[in-house]
Amino acid sequence: MNLQLKSGALQQVLALASLVVLLVTFSLSSGNFFQFSNLIGILLSTAVIGVLALGSTFEIITGGIDLSVGTVMTLSAVMSGVFITFWGLPVPIGILGGILTGALCGLLSGTAVAEMKIPPFIATLAMMMIAKGLALIISGAKPIYFTEAESFANISQGSVLGSLIPGFDIPNAVLIFFIAAILGFLILSKTIIGRYNVALGSNEEATRLSGVNVGYWKIVIYTLTGAFTGLAGVMMASRLNSANPALGAGYELEAIAAVVLGGTSLSGGKGTIMGTVIGALIMSVLTNGLRILSVPQEWQTVVVGFVIILAVYADMLRRRKA
Amino acid sequence: MGKKLSVFALVLMLAASLLSACGNAGNGASGGDNSSEGGSASGGSAAEGEIYIPIISKGFQHQFWQAVKSGAEQAGQELGVRITFEGPETESQVDKQIEMMQAALDKKPSAIGFAALDSQASIPLLKKAQENNIPVIAFDSGVESDIPVTTASTDNMAASALAADKMAELIGGEGKIAMVVHDQTSVTGVSRRDGFKKQIEEKYPNIQIVDIQYGGGDHLKSTDLAKAMMQAHPDLKGIFGANEGSAVGVINAVTEMKKEGRIVVIGFDSGKAQIDAIKNGTMAGAITQNPVGIGYETVKAAVAAIKGEKLEPQIDTGFYWYDKNNIDSEEIKAVIYE
């Protein structure tokens, strides 16, 4: 156990070190990189994928994988639009509705996995299709705009910090991302959900034999992932001030990449929230830095692919030694 | 077992409640749009004596395709022919589109409207249509084949050359500009990029295109990459967004960087976000195609072909520049769509 803790800490140090190396490299290569506005821009572009990745971390720690988070995020955004724009309900109810939509989808996937014994890959693949179809049906295949509810844009675009401390214009989306990360960290390391989550991922049978209702806790964990996904959907809709049913596909892969870069094992049982935050930051620092250096886009994609392979390989090498 | 059943029942109930919510919302969304009757994919065989024209588009999600559809339906009503309109979910699903084309041919239609996602992949089916004497009308983007009797489309090269002229005029003929394009593989992506680039390079030697990036038409991605462009080139004078998603991304980026009015944004296509941005001054103007016209001309040409009339190989469906000054004119109102 002690050894495991140490290796977890080392992994985070490694991930953090690569993030710092990236930051230093890009700062030296372009004078336009290390500027307040750009760093805030990087944090802002991390926020949505970051919250998505935070949620995915819980499921991946159980040894599962969620292919539906990209489209469930879209469905949640669309449902917020339904509540606020179609039904004219107050903005907080729209936010809650979006988060609950995500949680409900997670509950359904979790039930399929835990009670119907459908492998997570298949259950969430099905959920991906269901969410995509529903988002199109509900929205009438048209983007929903939040122009009537002006305060909705403030969820992501406004700056509570900026109004408290003049000049400190950090967008709310970034703030929400960090609060979500702290919340995720507390759930994973301080609550019974987190404890069972790790136990389940390490050895499901042993966990069951020690008297834990594995099915129940799996559903709880999937619902939790869903709630984070719903939050990401609301944040995305707020940043774009619209809910577009055609968006979101492919975001699940970016979330999974961020989780993996953060050292969470796809075979389950091991992972940290801090790691995911760093992983998500690595992804967006990398794309932002390459863009600022005007590296052709085809090559940006290739580089990101190589970085993922390298990160996971380094992790495996280290674990083999331990 | 009892517990499992009860959980299952609960899930079913939740699903049912979600579905009913969807039903309501769906009605709300499509309140003003009851013309999509013919839009279902399962049109069935053509009835005796009836002229039936299936239209296979590249998609149906974008507002652009909805506008094409409405034009086609309008022509269908005026000319008394039955049309159906369908397309794959995303514009990368070449195989799905081929299946739709196959299914459409099996219904023995009078003519077919077709916007190929992959012009090579569709050639065997086009040949089959030819053998069965079913005239094919290409629309939106052409097919590299002489089988379609005509092609109803926007001249994208010329349209984005006009965008380049407007950009040059608005930035005073010199300085750095950048482009956000949807992709480097589709006909529209390539010809809009090249049409704009060629015009700048040939006519405006003092303007430099410093960066071209591709956002896949994804609003969020296009926002982030346009922000990176502005960060990398603080003296950037203008950005061209080559389709709806790209242009919306550029608008968001300019707003988030608080550079409204200090960067000339020129877009392509239409949509509520672009219309709002033009009205509030974030966007200088945009090029719009005439999607309603594309749909209309496609059906009109199909009917002409069925009657055996001679058609020109190319029907230019036109394009327009719209900005603050003419956005409320009748001419522009007819071709922009929210």
Describe this structure in words.
- With 322 residues, chain A is mostly helical.
- Chain A is 76% helix and 1% strand.
- Chain A has one domain (37-316): ABC transporter involved in vitamin B12 uptake, BtuC, CATH 1.10.3470.
- Chain A is built from 14 helices and two strands, in the order αααααβααααααβααα.
- Chain A is globular, with a radius of gyration of 19 Å.
- Chain B is α/β, with parallel strands linked by helices and 338 residues long.
- Chain B has two domains: 52-154 and 291-318, 3-Layer(aba) Sandwich (Rossmann fold), CATH 3.40.50; 156-288, Response regulator (Rossmann fold).
- Chain B contains eleven helices and twelve strands.
- Chain B has helices spanning 2-29, 63-79, 94-106, 123-131, 156-170, 187-203, 219-232, 244-256, 272-280, 291-306, 330-333, and strands at 52-56, 82-86, 112-114, 136-139, 150-153, 175-181, 207-214, 236-241, 264-268, 285-289, 314-316, 319-323.
- In chain B, α2 links the parallel β1 and β2.
- The relative contact order of chain B is 0.12.
- The model of chain B is unreliable at 20-46 (pLDDT under 50).
- At the A-B interface, α2, α4, α5, β1 and α11 of A face α1, β7, α7, α8 and α9 of B.
- Chain B: One of its GO terms (molecular function) is carbohydrate binding.
- Chain B: Its main location: other.
- Chain B: Keywords: Signal.
- Chain B: Pfam families: Peripla_BP_4.
Which SSEs are present, and which pair or pack?
The complex is a heterodimer of chains A (322) and B (338).
Chain A: H1 2-29, H2 36-61, H3 69-86, H4 91-114, H5 120-139, E1 144-145, H6 154-157, H7 160-164, H8 172-190, H9 192-202, H10 204-209, H11 214-240, E2 242-243, H12 251-261, H13 273-292, H14 297-321
Antiparallel strand pairs in A: 1-2
Chain B: H1 2-29, E1 52-56, H2 63-79, E2 82-86, H3 94-106, E3 112-114, H4 123-131, E4 136-139, E5 150-153, H5 156-170, E6 175-181, H6 187-203, E7 207-214, H7 219-232, E8 236-241, H8 244-256, E9 264-268, H9 272-280, E10 285-289, H10 291-306, E11 314-316, E12 319-323, H11 330-333
Parallel strand pairs in B: 1-2, 1-3, 3-4, 4-5, 5-11, 6-7, 6-8, 8-9, 9-10
Antiparallel strand pairs in B: 10-12
Helix pairs in contact in B: 2-10, 5-6, 7-8
Main location (chain B): other
Organism (chain B): Paenibacillus ihbetae
Signal peptide (chain B): 1-21
